[in-house]
Write a structure and sequence with these properties.
The chain is an alpha/beta fold. It has two domains: about 5-20 and about 260-304, Helix Hairpins (Orthogonal Bundle); about 30-200 and about 220-260, Pyruvate Kinase, Chain: A, domain 1, CATH 3.40.1380.10. It is about 60% helix and about 15% strand. The chain has six helices and five strands. The protein has helices spanning about 5-60, 90-110, 120-130, 145-160, 200-210, 230-304; strands at about 75-80, 115-120, 135-140, 170-180, 180-190. A five-stranded mixed beta sheet has the order 3-2-1-4-5, with helices on both faces. α3 links the parallel β2 and β3 (about 135-140). α4 packs across α6 (about 230-304). The two termini are about 35 Å apart.
């Protein structure tokens, strides 16, 4: 490789490093905003889940309404994969698709069919590439999802459940833990009897602690007005919407964290490559100078 070729490669790598560094900074700024939105939503989401669980326990028997009725058999599972619209985020998108495909295979082994739903163009395109028919796809908002986006997805999934098109609704998304760590989360939304509405361990521990009067940690009895069945009818749509909205926000924060980490790694790799190319260029320059000196010496010896 000539000295000019090495210079051209160095210039290209420097431009790439500038881009990856800029993308890292943008992802870091968006991550901070996404973290704030998650922190603001988590208490409300936990409260909705807790209220839904307690109302279901108080109701005893589920009201005879379609959204609360457990189907006689589970023949079709609605699977919602939450990914991003863009790449360059490491394994963020691929691990969701892999988990979804594996979960689909497990259901198919149990003689169940899968109705695929995808949030994010990466999930939709990956499913289509694998020959999976996507019932509905939702794109264009993964950088900053709004509650209206969650309501649209929830409406489609609840309608499919009520109409008997699916007998169970599950979602798979990246739960946000830290910029370096995202946890693939698999939850069941419907039917409510099998839903993942168990509180976090810290809340369970708090519930088991003794109260100020030295009583055990059981929650106080609640009187419902109207009755818990009626409250449950109103809570379940909110529970589905808020669960999907939380998953969208968690996924957004996870995506920004994954992209920030991936771009940091790319920038560090670019620096290492620049060091190697600079060393190679210096060696090439030294070889050219040595060759010129040898030619001058040889010419001088020929004259003498």
């Amino acid at each position: 490789m000539s000295q000019q070729d090495v210079k051209d490669r160095i210039s290209s790598v420097e431009n790439i490093e500038k881009i990856t560094r800029a993308m890292q900074m943008v992802a870091a700024a968006r991550l901070r905003k996404a973290e704030q939105r998650i922190e603001a939503l988590r208490p409300y989401a936990k409260a909705i889940r807790r209220m839904t669980r307690e109302a279901a326990e108080a109701a005893g028997n589920m009201p005879d309404v379609p959204i609360l009725s457990e189907h006689d058999s589970v023949d079709t599972v609605g699977m919602l994969l939450i990914t991003g619209d863009r790449g360059l985020a490491g394994a963020f998108n691929s691990q969701i698709v892999r988990r979804g495909i594996q979960a689909g295979r497990d259901h198919e082994h149990d003689d169940k069919s899968i109705a695929w739903y995808a949030s994010g163009s990466k999930g939709a395109s990956s499913l289509a590439f694998r020959g999976k028919k996507v019932q509905e796809s939702y794109t264009g908002f993964t950088d900053r999802p709004a509650y209206a986006d969650a309501r649209e997805i929830a409406s489609d999934l609840m309608s499919a459940y009520i109409d008997g098109e699916v007998d169970r609704v599950e979602i798979i998304y990246n739960g946000y833990i830290s910029p370096l760590t995202q946890k693939v989360t698999h939850e069941t939304l419907l039917p409510l009897q099998e839903a993942s509405i168990i509180e976090d361990e810290d809340e369970d521990e708090d519930a088991d602690e003794e109260d100020d009067d030295g009583q055990d940690g059981k929650r106080a009895l609640v009187e419902y007005e109207p009755d818990p069945e009626e409250i449950l009818k109103r809570l379940v749509p909110d529970y589905v919407e808020i669960s999907i909205y939380r998953a969208l926000l968690e996924s957004t924060a996870s995506e920004h964290g994954a992209r920030m980490t991936a771009m940091r790694s790319a920038s560090e790799n670019a620096k290492e490559l620049l060091d190697d190319l600079t060393l190679e260029m210096n060696r090439a320059r030294q070889a050219e100078i040595t060759q010129e000196i040898m030619e001058v010496v040889a010419g001088a010896e020929a004259i003498t």
